[in-house]
Amino acid sequence: MLRAGKSRFNAPGLAVWGLALACLTPAWSASALLEGCRWLRDGRPGLAAQHFQAALASDSECAEALVGRGIVGLLAGRIGEAAEDFEMAAALQPRLPSAQLGIGAARCLAGDFSGALQAYRYVMALPLEDRESVQAAIAYALCAAGLYTSAQQQAGSVLRRQPHNALAAYVLAAASLAGGQPLQGLSALDSAPSPAAEELGVVVPSCVFSPPARYWVQQGLGKAAEVAVTAPPPSPLSAGAVTILNPAGGATVRGTIRVTVRVSPTLEPAYVTVLLADRFCGISNVQPYAIIVNTLQVPDGVHQLTVNAYSASGTVVGSASVEIHVDNGHRTLAVAERAARRAADRFLQRALALRLPPAAYAHLRGRLLDALSQPQAALAAYEYAFSYSPALPLLRADLLRAYRRAGLSIPLSRPELYRLPPSGKYVALTFDDGPHPQVTPWILNLLDRYSAHATFFLVGKQVDQYPELAAQIASRGHELACHSYTHRDLQGLDELEVERELVRTRAAIHRACGIRVTKFRPPGGHYSDIVRRAAATLGFTTVFWNCNICNYTTDDPQAVARGMLEDISSGSIVLLHNGEDITTKVLPLLLPGLAKEGLAMVSLKQAEGGGR
Question: What average pLDDT does the segment 532-550 reach?
Answer without folding.
Answer: 92
